């Protein structure tokens, strides 16, 4: 009888322990990005954190940065050494001013929802496109969007003209190649874990552009880890 | 144990029934009064309140059934235990009990029929918060404000046709107003679930899924996608607001100013959209 009791207690404890481990693992998965994040260098201006985030969007990420999916459309981020990396999980400080520069080397495919052509959630709700201040673009001209839904941040990126010369084939693309330059500023809030994504189904070769890089973290979407 | 040699014992059936009735008479009102009002989804709309009432009715009906099971199990465990040290013996044979069979069939049939009638009645009152497709049958009376819910991977946006086709990424509704939601999608299959409003309607591309709600007082509510729709499905949530009429008017004005620059590019209002890039939404 005593042996049976110990067996029963042992089983209950083992099941509870496994449950706790599984629970902790699931909790970790749901509260972390799931991949290491790139810590964007921070400077301090007037005692407040300021970040320069420089990224590019490319039509094909290339074998150098993504050997398994060289044809995937992708975002890249420039690190402190000026090197372009395929890393879409970024660590940013809380309550910081973030100056974003996006070099878009991809052509236009158009927004599915025209409403997203209006920039929102950024300073002044306007942005700079090739040095010109805009509060909207023609939805047909959009190539991608940079959006952080939790911040209400939506920025449509105009694409490179179809007949532009010296278009970039594979990333990383040089700034001497045809591109659009988009600049805007937004502000991070409290610490948290926020996804960002492209709202243009831009996965060439997939049904309506929905598959591949649109459904794989690390290309057209990622996280802002605000700490 | 041989049935012919069994000693007459206590009337177990009577004991179980009495205990069941007593327990049910105590538990059912407690469940209906104290648990019922706290059952989801909440009190954000008439439909949500109606769902709380429906859930209360169901749980109240369920309580006597659970009581019967509990009483039977506890009684059986206590009464029909094998005495310590006694030999393992078979119980008395089961005999046909027509009265029990008849009661079982009649009671369960009545319960199921009542629930079918009750459920149908509740559904037909105002749609009960569910999507009714493009040709709804349960239409509440009176004027309604139309709001279109457009799902896409992975965000909901909202279009207000009666305010110049205004589109926003936050759902804001005026208090005490009858709302006619037109739920659709421009890419994959989603499901619009405004939890505290008691609204859940599938968002399918090419389909105008109509759902009704009557808002209550100012409050916030959560919106989730309730249909696995791809990579960021788990992040497809936001908060909506019910505000006073004056706050709603101020919010509309503010959004219209923000919306002004993109208005020229918006396609005419349509009740449905398609994934085809040539038939864009918004």
Low-pLDDT regions of chain B:
none
Q: Biggest protein-protein interface?
A: A-B, 33 and 32 residues
Please report the distance between the alpha carbons of the first and last residues of chain A. Answer: 55 Å
What is the gyration radius of chain B calculated from CA atoms? 27 Å
Q: What CATH first level of chain A would be assigned? A: Mainly Beta
What is the highest CATH level, the class of the largest domain in chain B?
A: Mainly Beta
Strand percent estimate of chain B: 15-25%
- Specify the CATH architecture of chain A: Sandwich
- Number of spatially distinct domains of chain B: 2
What is the typical, i.e. mean, pLDDT of chain B? 91
Mean pLDDT over all positions of chain A: 90
Backbone shape of chain B: elongated
Estimated radius of gyration of chain A: 21 Å
The number of helical runs of chain A is: 2
Description:
The complex is a heterodimer of chains A (227) and B (282). Chain A has helices at 2-31, 62-65, and strands at residues 38-39, 42-45, 48-58, 74-78, 84-85, 89-92, 97-104, 127-129, 132-134, 142-148, 153-158, 180-187, 192-197, 221-226. Chain A is α+β, with helices and mostly antiparallel strands and 227 residues long. In chain A, strands 2, 3, 4, 5, 7, 8, 9 and 12 form an 8-stranded mixed β-sheet that branches. In chain A, a hairpin with a 5-residue loop joins strand 4 (74-78) and strand 5. Chain B is an alpha+beta fold and 282 residues long. Chain B folds into 2 domains: 11-79 and 104-129; 145-263, Immunoglobulin-like (Sandwich), CATH 2.60.40.420. In chain B, the strands form 2 sheets. In chain B, strands 3-2-1-5-8 form a 5-stranded mixed β-sheet. In chain B, strands 4-10-9-6-7 form a 5-stranded mixed β-sheet. In chain B, helix 1 runs antiparallel to helix 2 (46-79) and helix 2 (46-79) packs antiparallel against helix 3 (98-126). The termini of chain B are far apart. The relative contact order of chain B is 0.13. The mean pLDDT of chain B is 91. The interface between A and B is medium-sized, with 33 and 32 residues.
């Amino acid at each position: 009888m005593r042996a049976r009791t110990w067996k029963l207690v042992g089983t209950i404890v083992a099941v509870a322990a496994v449950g706790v481990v599984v629970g902790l693992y699931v909790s970790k998965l749901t509260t972390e990005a799931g991949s290491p994040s790139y810590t964007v260098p921070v400077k301090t201006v007037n005692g407040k954190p300021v970040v320069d985030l420089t990224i590019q969007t490319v039509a094909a990420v290339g074998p150098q940065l993504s050997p398994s999916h060289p044809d995937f459309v992708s975002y890249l981020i420039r690190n402190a050494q000026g090197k372009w990396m395929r890393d879409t999980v970024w660590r940013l400080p809380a309550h910081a001013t973030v100056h974003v520069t996006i070099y878009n080397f991809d052509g236009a495919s158009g927004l599915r929802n025209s409403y997203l052509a209006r920039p929102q959630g950024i300073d002044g709700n306007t942005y700079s496109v090739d040095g010109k201040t805009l509060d909207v673009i023609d939805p047909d001209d959009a190539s991608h969007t940079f959006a952080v839904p939790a911040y209400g941040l939506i920025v449509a990126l105009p694409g490179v003209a179809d007949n532009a010369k010296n278009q970039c084939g594979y990333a990383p693309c040089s700034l001497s190649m045809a591109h659009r330059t988009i600049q805007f500023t937004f502000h991070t809030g409290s610490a948290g874990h926020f996804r960002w994504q492209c709202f243009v189904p831009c996965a060439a070769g997939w049904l309506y552009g929905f598959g591949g890089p649109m459904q794989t973290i690390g290309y057209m979407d990622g996280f802002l880890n605000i700490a | 144990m041989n049935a012919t040699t069994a000693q007459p014992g206590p009337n177990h059936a009577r004991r179980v029934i009495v205990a069941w009735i007593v327990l049910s008479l105590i538990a059912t009102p407690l469940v209906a009064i104290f648990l019922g009002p706290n059952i989801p989804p909440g009190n954000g709309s008439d439909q949500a309140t109606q769902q709380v009432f429906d859930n209360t009715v169901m749980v109240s009906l369920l309580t006597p059934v659970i009581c019967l099971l509990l009483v039977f199990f506890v009684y059986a465990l206590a009464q029909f235990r094998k005495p310590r040290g006694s030999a393992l013996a078979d119980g008395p044979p089961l005999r046909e009990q027509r009265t029990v069979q008849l009661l079982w069939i009649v009671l369960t049939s009545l319960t199921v029929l009542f629930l079918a009638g009750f459920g149908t009645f509740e559904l037909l009152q105002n749609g009960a918060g569910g999507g009714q497709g493009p040709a709804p049958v349960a239409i509440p009376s009176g004027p309604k404000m139309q709001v279109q819910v457009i799902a896409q991977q992975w965000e909901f946006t909202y279009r207000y046709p009666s305010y110049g086709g205004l589109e926003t990424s936050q759902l804001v509704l005026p208090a005490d107003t009858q709302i006619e939601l037109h739920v659709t999608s421009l890419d994959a299959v989603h499901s619009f679930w405004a939890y505290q409003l008691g609204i859940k309607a599938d968002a399918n591309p090419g389909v105008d899924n109509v759902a009704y709600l009557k808002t209550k007082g100012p409050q916030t509510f959560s919106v989730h996608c309730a249909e696995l729709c791809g990579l960021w499905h788990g992040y497809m949530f936001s908060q909506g607001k019910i505000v006073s009429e004056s706050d709603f008017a101020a919010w509309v004005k503010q959004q219209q100013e923000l919306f002004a620059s993109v208005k020229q590019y918006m396609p005419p209002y349509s009740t449905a959209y398609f994934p085809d890039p040539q038939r864009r939404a918004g």
